[in-house]
Amino acid sequence: MPGRGWHGPGKGLGLGPGRSPYGAYCPKRHADRYGARQPVHSAAEARERLLQLFGADQVTISNLEERPRHFKANIVDKNGTLLDTVIIDRRSGRIRSIL
């Protein structure tokens, strides 16, 4: 039985290699070096970055909440199944799974 991992077909969600959200940075600017701070200023910007990271054709973002230091969102597949809950740090743009 396939697991619920993030590493491609046959092993779970099929988001493919390089799509793991754990500890990733928002893909705002491709020219930035890895680990560069990329602040997130609004909920709309947070939604856009999550869709870029996870693939807009694969998932939807639900329950996006603004918090003082971060944004919190649920990542849901096209069948409505909760895949993950993530936070995006406002100052650094760092995305972390909290599920």
What are the secondary-structure elements, in order, as H or E?
A: HEEEE
Residue fraction in strands: 25-35%
Q: Spans of 5+ residues with little confidence (pLDDT < 50)?
A: 1-14
| Mean pLDDT across all amino acids | 77
Largest sheet: 4 strands, antiparallel
Rg, rounded, reads 13 Å
Side by side, the strands of the main sheet go: 1-2-3-4
> How far do the termini sit from each other?
21 Å
Indicate the overall shape: globular
- Provide the structure class: alpha+beta
Tell me roughly what share of residues is in helical segments. 10-25%
Counted beta strands = 4
Count of DSSP-assigned helices: 1
Summarize the structure.
This protein is of the alpha+beta class. It contains 1 helix and 4 strands, in the order αββββ.
Write a structural description:
- The chain has a domain at 43-97.
- The protein is 12% helix and 27% strand.
- It contains one helix and four strands.
- It is of the alpha+beta class.
- Strand 3 and strand 4 (95-97) form a beta hairpin.
- It starts with 42 loop residues before the first helix and ends with a strand.
- It is globular.
- A four-stranded antiparallel sheet has the order 1-2-3-4, covered by helices on one side.
